[in-house]
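Slack export, channel: ligand-projects

TW: morning all. Re-posting the request from yesterday since it got buried. We need the structure predicted with the small molecule present, not the apo form. The ligand is pyridoxal-5'-phosphate; the SMILES is in the block with the sequence. No rush, but it would help planning for next week.
GE: picking it up
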Amino acid sequence: MHFEESDRLKNIPPYLFAEIDEIINKKQEKGIDVISLGIGDPDIPTNTNIIKSLCREARNPQNHRYSSSYGMSIFKEAVSKFYKKRFNVDLDPDKEIISVLGSKEGIANIAYTFINPGDYTLIPDPSYLVYKIGSSFAGGIPYSMPLEEENDFLIDFEKIKEDIARKTKIIYVSYPNNPTSASCDIKFFKELVSFAKKYNIITCQDNAYSDIYSDDTDKPISFLNADGSKEVGIEFNSLSKTFNMTGWRVGYAVGNCEIIKSLGKYKTNVDSGIFKAIQYAAVEALNNYDEYVKYNNVIYNKRRKMVKELLERIGIDYYKSDKTIYVWSKVPDGFTSKTFAKMLLDKADVVVTPGSAFGSHGEGYFRISLTISDDRLEEAMDRIQKVIL
Ligand SMILES: *Cc1c(COP(=O)(O)O)cnc(C)c1O
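GE: finished. pasting the full token output, ligand included:
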């Protein structure tokens, strides 16, 4: 028997790096020690206080039943307090906050909530792939907005064609950015608000990396810091990277109450909320964010510094940023993103992510993740040095 996949699934562009995956598998089968700098998933364990809170709440039978797709009040109140302390943003926990099963879920489902077949969506290139694929699943037509290094990987709104903007339903934005590590300032978010207002576009900003930075005087901001932002959009955020909780599946969206309400209406029909014990653990994390975030950033700062120093020593350019868990680096002359990644794998047994995996404008770059132990990262950088010099 053969069961045909839906057109929407079949139409996902073919995975470009199957060949690289195959080489990794073959090497691992032969017992070769391959080091991956390709994974955007923190290696630091979730803090034990957060785990204790989960364990305690898991024992309470009241937490074993369905929760709401909108999130428990105690969770939304903790998000509201966090946004006030961290970003000085006021949020009504009842109307302006919704829980999501990881921001990936919210990002994918916001498309089904608002897009009709034929609506345009504006997608940064390069970017996290869920914006484009999520909106295509819902029948949207993704239109790419190139992120260029000359413009610090910010979106250039002037380059978006007027007729496209008029047909657009959703714009996706994410700063601090995966994969480029670029961040933006309030001026950019203000431009984004004016653009969205002018064309009546729902704005979805993804702030997954809001708390990974080295300079306490230059922390990432929130989209909701921009005047008028709540009239046009929402911001996704997640406990995944901030608290090393990727496997827990807990995040949230904040902002425009109508958008939040509609997302909840959709979600009520496809999920039944996050396990209550996990929401209690998330409350513990959010209430003590300062301590947890400091701990992570000491680790990432040390690794980022080590990677940058080595790249400089071997003459590989990278984008100057102290945000996110990535170093966005330039492929040396004579290579494409893919041939360079393949060469590193062949000769150094090190995996990096080719920039072109994130969109055609990622060509010419590769991404190094800082989510691997200090020694393994050092060993990987040593191996890279040996094949480059
Ligand atoms: C990791 C990541 C997320 C977080 O996803 P979760 O589903 O919350 O784990 C969201 N956006 C970007 C750009 C990411 O890199």
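GE: first-pass observations. The domain at 48-289 is CATH 3.40.640.10 (Aspartate Aminotransferase; domain 2). Residues 1 and 10 are 18 Å apart (CA to CA).
TW: perfect, thank you
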